[in-house]
Amino acid sequence: MSDTWLPSLRTATPQEGYDLAVKLSRVAVKMTQPDADARTRLREVYENDASALIAVSAVVATHFQTVAKANKYWADT
Amino acid sequence: MSDTWLPSLRTATPQEGYDLAVKLSRVAVKMTQPDADARTRLREVYENDASALIAVSAVVATHFQTVAKANKYWADT
Amino acid sequence: MSDTWLPSLRTATPQEGYDLAVKLSRVAVKMTQPDADARTRLREVYENDASALIAVSAVVATHFQTVAKANKYWADT
Amino acid sequence: MSDTWLPSLRTATPQEGYDLAVKLSRVAVKMTQPDADARTRLREVYENDASALIAVSAVVATHFQTVAKANKYWADT
Amino acid sequence: MSDTWLPSLRTATPQEGYDLAVKLSRVAVKMTQPDADARTRLREVYENDASALIAVSAVVATHFQTVAKANKYWADT
Amino acid sequence: MSDTWLPSLRTATPQEGYDLAVKLSRVAVKMTQPDADARTRLREVYENDASALIAVSAVVATHFQTVAKANKYWADT
Description:
The structure is a homohexamer.
Chain A: H1 14-32, H2 36-46, H3 50-70
């Protein structure tokens, strides 16, 4: 994760902001479990676990709050 | 999810804002588990799991905070 | 849920705001599990599950934040 | 819960605000499980369950955010 | 918990603010389980339970939001 | 944890802010479980537990909200 992956919290639209929130939720997992093979194995587990999917959605919701505020809720859209 | 599904966070009423929060909570699940058949199987599980339903409600609550703020709490309603 | 159930986030008192937060926490459950009989069965489960009750309280807390802010914390009360 | 139990979110001190947050976290449990005997049985369970105690603390933290903001963080104290 | 343990949310530095957040997360546990021996037994459990430790960290994060805001993010530091 | 590890919430970029959020999420674990060997054992557990990784990501999301706000969302970037 040494390259620049988060140059700004600004996005052109709410939907791009949502995509950024999804990205923000995934990076913490990568930083905690850096082994790509281990993450692939875990993905097969949580993709089929309703509670895990809901928990992922909760993390996205928290990040989307941040991104939405950073973009002043895309008031002009 | 390539089409525009989130053009704006603005809604006419608090109730439409709540519906949008529900939608926002579901999209992250779809993006994490893109297979519709797998989601149908999981839905049968979490629809009958009290903890999962409460967890869904928690995600909606977080998104509703964002949508409500974006709409300045529908102060004119 | 097609009728108007959320005309406004405004309430006369903090306590009515809390009641609204409870309502907001329940609607997402209804929208996710629309079958009333299924919800009755689940209610018997989570009413007697300490973790589920605490999780319900967490959802109420999040919605109460929103309602309180929408009412400017009932500063005149 | 028909009487007035929440006349205001204002408290004289941060510590009283914290006590109010604890109260706010408990009322949702009472409203969801109105049977006092059932709550007593559940209390014996969650008092000895580390995860449940931490979950209670999380709910208090969310309500404390609300109460603190309503009191402008007791800036004069 | 009858003595004054929370005279103010102000701290001199972010780090002291973090320490206060840790304290705030612990007090709710003490108020819910007042028996010190019981808490000692529980501590041995959650100190060795990854999920419990992460849940503690989540509560600290929520309180740190409150403390940071009360201190205007220590903008002068 | 007696040294200064959190002199400021300010960071030059959003990405450094995210790194700080990760750090903030880890310190509470260290303060709750000060034994480094115990933490190493626990790390092997939660690195391979999808739910734990998602929970870590949730804590990071909460801290990132705080850090982002402290930095006014890096509006100039």
